[in-house]
Amino acid sequence: MVNVQDGSVIKTKKVDFYYGSFKALTDVTMDFERNRVTALIGPSGCGKSTLLRLLNRMNDLIDGSRVEGEVLFEGQNIYAPEVDPVDIRRRIGMVFQKPNPFPKSIFNNITYGPRLTGMSKKADLEILVEQSLRQAVLWDEVKDILNRSAMMLSGGQQQRLCIARALAMKPEVLLMDEPTSALDPISTAKIEELIQDLKKTYTIIIVTHNMQQAARVSDMTGFFYIGKLIEYSATDKIFTRPDVKQTEDYITGRFG
């Protein structure tokens, strides 16, 4: 089990990651704390999304990729041979950059995963749908149209539906890969409020290219550059008095 004293849910230890012969991450060691929002920032191609996908074994789906080092979730190396990647992806949910609802009803979007894991009672599914949509602050907007296609929702609603769909699997950690980059400012504000609310229950790790967003929503921030973790600290420290000049240059817009 996880060491209760340090409160970390996920730890990476000396992680290197390769796409074929290309080394995308070098020697990344980080602790992700329970019920905290951690932001990963840095210029495009710096490895932050690669790291995010490493944390729930999404990169396994890419031919020729390999990981060295350890990724510990609740004290267990998720890349150990006996670990089931499907179980890891259930416990560590993911929300992608662009809303990607299934071409099904709103109700069936939420229940798709739980049904695959054996939940079949209609009453249980109905409770789960309401609970998940309430957590994603979407219930009041869709409760009367649950049998309509999710594709008719607005972009912001679709993204909150995707968050609800991830929450329906009862994860412990929620990964978010630039979850508002395709959304308008009002929808973005709603998702940011939602993140603040969800961290009471979940550990959240978010990749964002938006400095202001990282400053608003996160407790901890890691700055990446060319596959390396340059600096990792409390968000207010990173944004006001970083230890590394390169971090300061990126945050103030001198490069990147």
Tell me what the structure shows.
By secondary structure, this protein is an alpha/beta fold. It has a single domain (8-251), classed as P-loop containing nucleotide triphosphate hydrolases (Rossmann fold, 3-Layer(aba) Sandwich). The chain contains ten helices and ten strands. It has helices at residues 48-54, 85-91, 106-116, 122-135, 139-142, 155-167, 185-198, 211-217, 235-240, 245-251, and strands at residues 8-19, 22-33, 37-41, 65-73, 76-77, 92-95, 173-177, 203-207, 220-225, 228-234. It has a six-stranded mixed β-sheet with strand order 6-7-8-3-9-10, sandwiched between helices. A four-stranded antiparallel β-sheet has the order 2-1-4-5, with helices on one face. A hairpin with a 2-residue loop joins strand 4 (65-73) and strand 5. Helix 3 packs across helix 4 (122-135) and helix 4 (122-135) packs across helix 6 (155-167). The chain is globular and about 55 Å long. The model is unreliable at 1-5 (pLDDT under 50).
Write the layout of secondary structure elements.
Layout lengths: L7 E12 L2 E12 L3 E5 L6 H7 L10 E9 L2 E2 L7 H7 E4 L10 H11 L5 H14 L3 H4 L12 H13 L5 E5 L7 H14 L4 E5 L3 H7 L2 E6 L2 E7 H6 L4 H7 L5
Parallel strand pairs: 3-8, 3-9, 6-7, 7-8
Antiparallel strand pairs: 1-2, 1-4, 4-5, 9-10
Helix pairs in contact: 3-4, 3-6, 4-6, 6-7
